[in-house]
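Milestone 3.1: sequence recovery, worked example.
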């Protein structure tokens, strides 16, 4: 079990359920360099927020 660096909840890494979690994991690896340290809820939220607010560079 790991602790999420955003919300502090415990989670089991590597178990992805939804497309939003996959997108959040990609963002964690490619943009923020914190892959493997966020829970599934935070990954989903990151993906949803990125779709709304992240602008191509």
């Amino acid at each position: 079990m790991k602790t999420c660096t955003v919300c502090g909840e415990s989670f089991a890494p590597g178990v992805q359920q939804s497309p939003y979690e996959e997108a959040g994991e990609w963002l964690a690896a490619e943009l923020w360099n914190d892959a493997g340290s966020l829970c599934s809820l935070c990954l989903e939220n990151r993906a949803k927020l990125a779709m709304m607010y992240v602008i191509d560079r």
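The mean pLDDT is 91. The helical segments are 19-30, 40-53.
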